[in-house]
Structures are given as structure tokens and as C-alpha cells.
Design brief:
With 508 residues, the chain is mainly beta. The protein has four domains: 148 residues, no CATH class; 137 residues, no CATH class; 116 residues, no CATH class; 50 residues, Membrane-bound Lytic Murein Transglycosylase D, Chain A (Roll), CATH 3.10.350. It is 4% helix and 72% strand. It contains three helices and 23 strands. The strands form seven sheets. Strands 1, 2, 6 and 7 form a four-stranded antiparallel beta sheet that branches. Strands 14, 19, 20 and 21 form a four-stranded antiparallel beta sheet that branches. 23% of the residues are buried.
Amino acid sequence: MELQLKTEQFTYYEATEEAPVSLETTQEAIVPDSCADVERIVDTTGVVLVHSKDVGPDGRLEINGVIKATVLFLPEAGKEPGAVHVSIPFHTAAELKDGAGRCAVRAWLRSIDSRLLNPRKMLTRADLLLEITAYRQKTVQLCTAAEGDETLQVLEDQAETTVLTDVMEREFPYVEEMSVSASRRGIREILDSRTVLFPSETRIIGSKLVLKGIVRGELLCRDTAGEVFHLSQEYLFSQILETGASEDTGFARASFALTGYEYTIGSENDRDDDHVVTMSLHIRSSAEILEKRRLRFLADLYSLSQHLELERQTLSVLEDTRSYTRKQNMREILETGVAVRQVVAAWVQLGLCQRQQGEEGAGVQIPVQLKTLYLDENDQLQLAEKTVQVHGETDDSAAGRIVVSCPGEAASGPAPEGIEVRFALEFAIDTGLHTDKLCIAQVKCSEQPEEEDAMPSIVLRKISDGTRLWDIAKQYRTTGADILAANAMESEDALNGDKLILIPRHRV
């Protein structure tokens, strides 16, 4: 008897986190002639822009980008702060293992600071961490059926799993106008800017993947009278991509990153309007497409007439997937050492999450940097900052991917000890149960051993509770139907409990 195995293939992507890449870089900058000599540096901020990430045929990943830094300072004469903008290019490489063809790179600025070399020259140092996710295409071949004669006994099984079927990226421009209240004086200079992007909704409609997000622009401005103030506004945006995923079984996870930005005073129609700031962004949208699939495969088989040697493979499946969010309200005190007359601005910056696994479930440890600019009793601009380690927990031991964001603005105000900052963190959690299924990979046929031909025609055996009818029939090379008929049983359920049963040999 020759066996003909029917097979089906399905292809998916396996996402693995590579070792993070650390990079430290420096850049000198000359204070422009239009600025006075620098007396004191107040703060240094930075935005990491990953411009390109190319994977070569040898698995080498080349990453190029720039850090756009802003150095906020106070001049030797006067109280009005100034700013020096510095571009720090960077290039690094990493070796991806096992032939990854695609990757995603997220950049984290662990620290950035500046020091004066002289009143007209400064040195900025940035400590960068690049988180790399590699995507490797996998193909699994499953045996779904076997064809032979009527003596072949087949055990089929099935499982529902969630797999990553596609990874997409696209860059697009986004332009919006931020407006200043008419009751406030106009803007004379934009000192510093921050741009926060986070997804709000993903949906598959027909052959379209609709990604929606929120962008928050935060500006530190100086008005026409020299007063420093904070301007923050949020806007909705959307992006539409083509997808082959099913609307019924597919869903997506999205993320957004800046590849370029510019804030300019004035509107498109009136460049002299100092109550409007035009926000021009270049955004890279990334989407992971996941689909739920039901897989059918052969779990076991044997022949009543021939000896079969089975080669098995392990099929890993992700079952019972779901997504949910948890919010965690935070309150921190930033000590100042001096009395605070007014808080000008407060920012929250998240670092790289570190996964943790405990007995009660999964969680993350994430560094959160808090910064506030404030005016002291002498109307001098000061900085108060603090980094705290926040632990986020879940109640689900099967928690997998956890993404942390700070979707709202930080609320701040003077407190007896310094400055009180309140903010909320949102934990987006994907859960699922990883299980392994054994399935048939290959089958080899040979003649039945002579000792098996000499087996008795009937066996009386005591079985224990929970023994499968399939395992008994396979052991004695008979069929489940023969066993049930010999014992006057209608179904396998009658085998429950310890009992003696007759096991007849099947006659071919």
C-alpha cells in the first residue's frame, strides 16, 4: 500500500526583537551672531528621525537618521531666553539573524545634554537606543489527508490560530495650522517644539486598511513682548492602505513615527499672521496585519495491514487572542529648591519598555522622564526634571505584546515641595495562549512485522478513566468501531471509568 499525503501550505511572518543598538554621538554648535553670548544653558531636547533602514542580502541592517536638538539658553544680558538648533546625523549597522527580510526600527533618546565650551560655542551629547523588530517569512506545510486502502485509520485535528500575514509601511505628509488665542499677543519666535503621535483606531473595510491617529503639537514660544508661553493642540489624521486581509478575520496594529517636521509662524494664506503656526510633518505609518485562521491537519494515523513509520512536526498556534487597554494615573513631585511663581510648560517622555514576567502575570518596567520649565520668584527661567521607573502590571499571565503611551497632556502646578505633575499612562495589551500541536510531517511504509501477525484474535484489558479509544485501537491494530461493537457500546463516552473491555483483532 502506498500512501498519498495531501498537503496545504500557509505563509506568515515571525516577528522577533533583536538586540537593541546603543549609539552615542556628539556635535559642536556655534551660537548665531544674532544671539547674545550664552550665560547659562537651561535645557536640551531632541527628536530622533530615522530616515532610512535598509536590509542587505547578507542580513546587514544599515540605519541612517538625524537627531534634531534644541538648546534653550539664557543670554548674559537680559532675561529673554534664546535657542540654538542643532542637527546631529547618525549612522549605525546591525546584523540580523536567520535571513530577516524586513524590519521596524523605533528610536529612543535615553539622554541628551549640552555644555558650554565658551560663551559662543557649545557641545551637545546624545545617547540613543534603537529597538529593532525583525520580520522573517515562514512557510508551514501541513498534511491534511492521506489516501490509501480501507485499512488506513486517520485521526484529524484542527486549531484556530492568529498569525502575522503582512507588514506595511508608508510615508505621507501632514499639514495643519495651530492657532493662538486672539486674547494673547502674537508669536515672535518658536523656541522649541515637540510632536507626539499615537494611534487611535485601525479598521479593515473591504480591501482598505484605515489607520487613524492623533498628533499633538507642543510649542514653547516667545510672544511679541518677550514672554515665554506653552502652546499645545491635538488633531486627528488618517491614512488608507491597500490590504488583502479579510474584513471578517483580519485586524491590524499600527504605529507612527516622524521622519521630518517643521513649525513656521504664519498660515498658508498669510505668512505674516503671528497668531497661527503651520505644522508640517512627514509621518511614517507602520502596520502589522494579523489574521485568524483555522488549520486542519493529520494528528495521527496507522494501518491495519502495513507498518507505518511516522515523522511528526510541532505546530505552534496562538489561540484565544484578545486586546484591551489599562490606564494608570500618575502623580509626581519635582523638587525645585526655590519658590515657583509660574509653571510655563510640562512634558512627559517615555523610554524603552522592559518586559517582566512574574507568577501573577506579565508586566513592563518603563522609564518616564518628567520635565518642567518654570519661573522662579525673580522671573528667571528654570528647569526641574526627574526620571521615574513605572511598573505596569496585567492580570493575564498570557499577556504578549504591551505598548505604553501617554495620550493626554500633563497637568502641572506649584506645590509646597516644588512642582506637582499629574499624567496618565495607557497600556495596550495583546494576549493569547501559545500551545503546541503535534501533526504528521512524513510517513514511511513497510511490511507488517511477523510478531504482529501472531497477535491474539481478542484481548481482555482493563482501561483507566480518560484513555482515548483511538490510542487503544492503534495499540492493538484494530478500529474503534470494532471495539465499541464488541462491548455493545454506542460511543466513546461509555469508556469512562475503570472497566474491563474486549478488544477484537480486526480481520483484513
